[in-house]
Amino acid sequence: MSNTTTDDSLITTEVQADSNDDRAAPAAGTAVAARDLNVFYGDEQAIDDVTMEIPEKRVTALIGPSGCGKSTFLRCINRMNDMIEICRVEGDVEFGGKNVYGPNVDPVALRRKIGMVFQKPNPFPKSIRDNVAYGLKIQGYDGDVDARVEESLKGAALWDEVKDQLDSSGLELSGGQQQRLCIARAIAPDPEVILMDEPTSALDPVAASKIEDLIDDLAEEYTVIIVTHNMQQAARISDRTAVFLTGGELVEYDDTAKIFEDPEEQRVEDYITGKFG
Amino acid sequence: MATDNPNADGFGEVSRVRGIAFEYLSFGASVFGLVALGVLLVYVAIDAFDLANASPEWLLTYFLTLVGPFLAFCLYSANDPEVTRRALGALGGGLVVVAALFSAIEAFVAPIPRLNWQLAYLFVVAAPTTAYLAYVGSRGRLGAVGFGLLGRLVGGVAIGLAVGTLFLVFDALLWFLAYTLGVLPAVGLYAFGRVRSAPRARTAAAPVGLVGLTAAVFLRDVVATYPSDLIIYLWTIAVPVAAAGALLVADRSGRTAGVLVGGLPLAVATAGGFLAAGAGLPAPTVLLVLVLTGVPTAAYVSRVVDVGEGVVGLALPFLLAAGVIVGALIVEALGVPAPDPWLDASYLTEAPSRTPSEAGLYPAIVGSVIIIAMVAVLSFALGVGTSVFLEEYTPESGPLGTLTRILQVNVANLAAVPSVVYGLLGLGLFANLLGLGIGTAVTAALTLSLLILPITIISAQEAIRSVPDDLRRGSDAMGATRWQTTKNVVLPEAMPGILTGTILALGRAIGETAPLIMIGAATTVFRAPDSLFSRFSAMPMQIYTWAGFPQADFRYGVVAAGVITLLIILVGMNGSAILLRNRAERGS
Amino acid sequence: MTDSTESPDLTRRGGLTRLKEGTYGGLFAACAAITLLTTAAIFVTLLSDAVVFFRSISIVEFLTGTNWSPNPAGGGQAFGIIPLLIGTLTVTFTAALISIPIGTLTAIYLSEYATPNARSILKPLLEILAGIPTVVYGYFALVYITPALKATLFPEMSTFNALAASIMVGIMTIPMVSSISEDAMSAVPDELRQAGYGLGATKFEVSTGIVVPASISGIASSYILAVSRAIGETMIVVVAMGAQARMPEIQEAAFGIPFINPADVLLESGMTITVAMVQITGGDLTGGTLPYNSMFALGLALFAVTLVMNVISDIIAQRYREEY
User: Fold this and answer.
1) Which residues are in the ABC transmembrane type-1 domain (chain B) (predicted)?
2) Could you tell me the pTM of the whole model?
3) Under CATH, what is the fold of the domain B356-587?
């Protein structure tokens, strides 16, 4: 415990935000926007007055030390925080121009338009096919299910590995494959936004890099919002980066290259270079 | 617990005598109840099977023809020289020790009533060794196949008998109409929808089925002529079971195998049914037993043959049957004096009687089966509903959270209410206030359902709670409604646990007597109940009645046989519950 | 693939979907409501008939009467609960003498001494003791235990007696004591044990001097539950104890202190509250008679006692859960 500081300074990142220049042009519209968002867990404030606009068909990374509210923010977008009883949300989160916390909004209907991938792969204990078809089934999809399953598995770069074993259990796959299965499950109902909550933190580096490649491809069609504690990962895959610091404060939000090369805020620079956090 | 430490020079020693004495004392306490129960069970088994009159020759004969080959099979399957050595050592050494010890006690202390050293050997050494070897043997490939086949045979017969019993009470003609007009079209539509991916056909299945069922109820008294019972069972149960088996196998190992697996048992069962009808036996039951045993057995054999491992294990049932037959032949040929067990075929198929040797348990068994079937449906539905409500639908805090806690405390308190009080509830509420009748099967079923409901709820809650939250959140995030998450993710995962808990609770219900007495269940009935509203008796009720008879033959014979029957059914139920749980644990 | 609609439809679904959701929610709530209704029904059923009973027989007479004969041949019914209380207390006390020490020792063995392997075998086996139908225990007591006791220790014992029944009730309630006590002992944090060993205590001293006192509230709650179970036990006593509501002879010892010879109640037949209820069912069950109503008065007494004990045990158990 005593040598944490030295360790931290050792892993000071030499990041190069190079990868996503092709999509950096600010042509895109806004997919999700937060306005004066405050979130409380009981008496404790988890998000402190956050306002930000997330562009569509881009990868937006939310980074920050643990407990900074980045996951909470992610879960506000598809109202997964509703499941936590002591959670209270003030302010607006707009999705497609509508406030998701507005009256008459059904969180279930909202979640059908927003996919989510969790930290730990959580395929259902069903066959691979049923896993991917799950969203279609619950939404009463009446088209060709098998075609959509194939399309989604291809979209998640998993098809070639599992096409001969679609009826075997999703739990028989390796961790990385399971996570890609979860991504296939999320994109099968054709959502507009995909939320990813530290999707690679439970995986080995090889599996994680496959997921990173996949995220890059997904941004062609979807708006991807990813929470990560891994700054290199944010630098590699995201177009925009939002830095949250303790107390749920959004300290800086800009193009990824700007954040990692020339941040406005001293605190952000300290965090990125490992002096803090 | 080493008391002396050779390296400890100069530290001295702390006495452990008290500690060691205490350890043995507490171990003794742990097994005290079990040993007491074991001894009592040995005595009741001796009484039920009249083993006190079993001659040593008789025991030896069956030991050689039945037990010996079985042990050899298990040892062969285990294929472990160490186990073989230990087993033979235990069997041989145990013989000497038990004989010597027993004779010593008889000679120096006091004669032990109704026990001789052969029986002591049987229960103290042979039976545990056999059980242990069966366990070890069943873990080998060969044994797994053999016991799997044996299990399907026994289970098929038990389920066939139980289903046949249920149709004594439920209206077969109504079932015939309901199946033909409602169940069949609905299942057909659904299957069509699945295969052709036509969702409309699938959605139509439920309404069509409902319309059919309603029509069946209306037509029940309008239609004048019905096919015979045998044809009804053939059409509504035997054919669908065979078809299901055939489809399952055809999917796995080709059409020919499928046709064989479905067709062969169906043909045998049909032939058996008609033969039984000719011979005056209960033809529908024969048909049901044959088809419910035959199809799973055939499917299992086909799979074992496909896999091609441990095929020899399939011989186990034949080995046991041959052992029984050969043993019987030898006993017959040599004129070996054989015991005359109280628990025999006529005991299970005859009505009670004042004469001990003619007394039977049949009407009570039928009563128990009918009540348990109703209790199973009721307590399962109510238990799952309540536990889903408590675990998935109500929050843990806030005003609704208070309601959850009240419900929870209430369930816990209901579990501790004495069963005799539930009997009063049944008498006051169901029998008298609601007019369901004193001592009727339906009153008993409702009373017992409420009695085991708290146990079912608590175990179902545990099963639902053990479903990882990850899965729920995954489903919620896909935009599933609460019911969709419950139906598609939570219940399938929790189902093995829920079923295990329900079966264990049913075990409690099948042995309950006090509530039955309170609702005025008959102490003895001479005919099996033929409707839900007829007076009935149940196994524990009959045991209670007979235990009060003054004749020794009732106390030590007839009741002992009833106790053993009840315990065997209990062991069967609990055993299948445990198998179910183990299988689910292995699966996940 | 995405065909970004400007304004996604997020409104609540109408009609069928909501109806379906509501129906299922309502169905489950109804199931849960049945458990509450059961409690209410027990109260109402017991109370309504008991009230009728207490209109004819005053509560004081009921609680202090020393004669119980609801259906006498020659008339002159009497409804005094004292002989039944004596019977119930005899059985409960004797059973507790068996189940409490044995159950506690079992719990200590399982929690402190047994290897994980032995524990995994012993625990389910012990549960069997609670799973045997009670009528079977009653039968065992009547045809095996009583003759054995008669042949060895108590030749003058009667065929129906309280002792054999109590032994069986005791054995049946062992797992109730052992499993809850063991849970409480296993919940004692290992640091406490380590502290004891660090001071040079032996395993015996740690088990009895540290673990047992630390888990005493859980152990106490298990005792109460087992006793409550023994009070409500019916079939064992019905089969093995007979059905004679007897007042034992009250003798006077030195200095005029009254006492009851234990042999008088243990070796003779007797009657518990539950037996009295069962005995009345031999008569009219359609209701309206005094014996019928007295059954519900007894049931109410039984229900109240077991409920109170259960609540007390719950409160005690709650305390140990909060401690760690």
Assistant:
1) 365-577
2) 0.86
3) MetI-like fold (1.10.3720)
